[in-house]
Amino acid sequence: MRLENNTILITGGTSGIGLSFALRLSEMGNKVIVVGRRQEKIDDVLSRHPKLSAIRADISKIEDVNKLTDTIESEYPNLNMVINSAGIMRQYNLFDQDLELKDLTLEMNTNFNGIVYITKSLLPVLDHQRESMIVNISSLLALVSAVDSPIYSATKAAIHMYTDALREQVRANNSNIHIVELLPPLISGTNLTTQYDNALFAKFANSPLSTLVDAGIKGMERNKTQIDVAFTKVMRLSMKIMPRTITHIWGQQTMKAYLKKYNLGFEA
């Protein structure tokens, strides 16, 4: 797919991965609309990057998604690309007696439900175009869980399965929508994985944002169905060879990073 002269919506587009893609795609000659929950953050982004457009919406809320869809249909009817980048990552010790059940679904509501809502609502607009694309950003953690962030890992695995099913439904309905799954490794320069910054595995599992964006753009242009970036390629191969061993070692390391961050001590 040619990545110029498109109209592109990016959820979670006011920071991190989403904003980086927004700026790169805008520079390439596309109309880019970023979506964020907080108006003050949107205002700040637009003041620094006036070529971008924005819509305020909490994609975990159906009423917000409905309003966003109305805005797209009326103001951006040529929308032909959606990048689902919005996500939150929280750390939990499931044995913590103070942890409330309602807090456990916050990530599911944004990371997974939000993608489902946005995709279903905008499918008619995308299907109307000559060629269009949906990019769902999952994660290395769709392949192997971060033990300290069990719900986040589960949402990324769910995104992977949902994306596979969506792709097959697109084919069955003879729609010309390209369905892409982008799997970043740990990304330095974002606020999602700072708990791992000093962990031993971060030295080889981390990649800069620029590497992710370069790989993502290249894969989108080639209509790749799955884009494994940097260390994600290594982890995918390792999980094929010795999945239980890798799961255990990775789990130990991510949990140790969590315990060290909060000075909770170590267990052998």
Automatic annotation (TrEMBL):
<feature type="domain" description="Ketoreductase">
    <location>
        <begin position="6"/>
        <end position="190"/>
    </location>
</feature>
<dbReference type="GO" id="GO:0016491">
    <property type="term" value="F:oxidoreductase activity"/>
</dbReference>
<protein>
    <submittedName>
        <fullName>Oxidoreductase</fullName>
    </submittedName>
</protein>
<dbReference type="GO" id="GO:0016020">
    <property type="term" value="C:membrane"/>
</dbReference>
<dbReference type="Pfam" id="PF00106">
    <property type="entry name" value="adh_short"/>
</dbReference>
<keyword id="KW-0560">Oxidoreductase</keyword>
<dbReference type="InterPro" id="IPR057326">
    <property type="entry name" value="KR_dom"/>
</dbReference>
<comment type="similarity">
    <text>Belongs to the short-chain dehydrogenases/reductases (SDR) family.</text>
</comment>
<dbReference type="InterPro" id="IPR036291">
    <property type="entry name" value="NAD(P)-bd_dom_sf"/>
</dbReference>
<dbReference type="InterPro" id="IPR020904">
    <property type="entry name" value="Sc_DH/Rdtase_CS"/>
</dbReference>
<dbReference type="InterPro" id="IPR002347">
    <property type="entry name" value="SDR_fam"/>
</dbReference>
